[in-house]
Design a protein that fits this description.
Arc Repressor Mutant, subunit A; mainly alpha; two-stranded antiparallel sheet
Length: 253
C-alpha cells in the first residue's frame, strides 16, 4: 500500500527494505498489518487471531507481541469465537462491544443469548447491567449482594431468584428497586414494560404454570391481560413456595 501511494504521489525513489518472502509469509504479514490498523469489528478481530493461531501456528504470546497486546487480551478475544454463529453475526452487525459480547459466554443457551442482546439494544444496557441481567437469568447473585450499576445513578439490581420445577432457578426482576432516574427512562420506552410482562409469563410457563398473556389496542390504549388458572389447583402460595405445585382442594382429596 505504501508503494502504491508513492506511485500515486509521483515519487520515483523511496527508502525501503526489500525482503524475499514466501506466499505464506506475505499472507501472514498482510494479516498482521490489517489487525494492527484496528479496522476490524470485534468478531473479525477474533477471527483474525484464530487464523494466526491455526493457519500460521503462532502461539497467543507470539500473536500478542506481533500486534502489541498481552497474551491474556488475545485469549479473551479468542473466547468470543465460542459464541454460536448466529450470535456472532449479530454482535458484528449491531456493533456490540467486546465486553457485552464476552458477558454472553456465561449463558449456556443460544436463545437466552439472543434474548439478552435484544434487551441490550432496546434498553441501552451498560456492561454492568448486562452482567446483572445474565446473573438474574442464571438464578445467581454476586457474593456481596446487589451491586450498583457503574456509571448509572443509584440503581440496584432488585433481582430475586425463585426456584422452579426441575431444580432450575427462575429469576424475578423487582420493579420497585429502580431509581427515579431509571423509572423516568423506562416510562419513555413502553417496550421495557412489555418485555417485563412477557418475561414474567415465560417464567411461569417454564415453571409449569399454564399462564397466558394477550395484548390488544383499543381507544388509544394498550390493554394487557394475564390469565393464571386457579381451577387446576395453582395458588399464589404454591408459586411463592417454589414452582408449579398443585394445592389439593380444601377438605382433602
Amino acid at each position: 500500500r505504501r508503494l502504491a501511494a508513492a506511485r500515486l504521489a509521483g515519487l520515483r525513489r523511496v527508502p525501503a527494505v526489500v525482503r524475499e518472502l514466501s506466499s505464506r509469509d506475505m499472507a501472514l504479514m498482510s494479516l498482521l498489518e490489517e489487525l494492527q490498523t484496528g479496522e476490524f469489528d470485534v468478531m473479525e478481530e477474533a477471527e483474525g487471531y484464530r487464523r494466526l493461531s491455526e493457519e500460521f501456528g503462532l502461539t497467543q504470546a507470539e500473536i500478542g507481541r506481533a500486534v502489541g497486546k498481552s497474551q491474556s487480551t488475545i485469549a479473551n478475544k479468542l473466547r468470543l469465537l465460542r459464541l454460536p454463529e448466529s450470535v456472532r453475526r449479530r454482535v458484528s452487525a449491531e456493533g456490540v462491544s467486546e465486553r457485552h459480547a464476552r458477558a454472553l459466554l456465561d449463558l449456556p443457551d443460544e436463545r437466552l443469548q439472543h434474548r439478552v442482546l435484544d434487551e441490550v439494544k432496546a434498553c441501552s444496557l451498560s456492561v454492568r447491567e448486562t452482567e446483572e441481567r445474565i446473573r438474574a437469568l442464571l438464578g445467581t447473585a454476586p457474593a456481596d449482594g446487589p451491586r450498583r450499576s457503574g456509571g448509572r445513578a443509584g440503581r440496584t439490581t432488585g433481582e430475586e431468584p425463585a426456584p422452579s420445577a426441575g431444580g432450575r432457578q427462575v429469576a424475578w426482576r423487582g420493579l420497585g428497586q429502580v431509581s427515579d432516574r431509571r423509572a423516568i427512562r423506562a416510562f419513555r420506552d413502553i417496550r421495557l414494560f412489555l418485555n417485563t410482562f412477557r418475561r414474567a409469563v415465560d417464567m411461569l410457563k417454564e415453571a409449569g404454570i399454564p399462564a397466558e398473556m394477550t395484548e390488544a389496542e383499543a381507544g388509544g390504549c394498550l390493554e394487557i391481560r394475564v390469565r393464571i388458572p386457579t381451577a387446576g389447583g395453582y395458588s399464589a402460595a404454591s408459586v411463592r413456595a417454589g414452582g408449579a405445585r398443585k394445592v389439593p382442594p380444601e377438605g382433602g382429596g
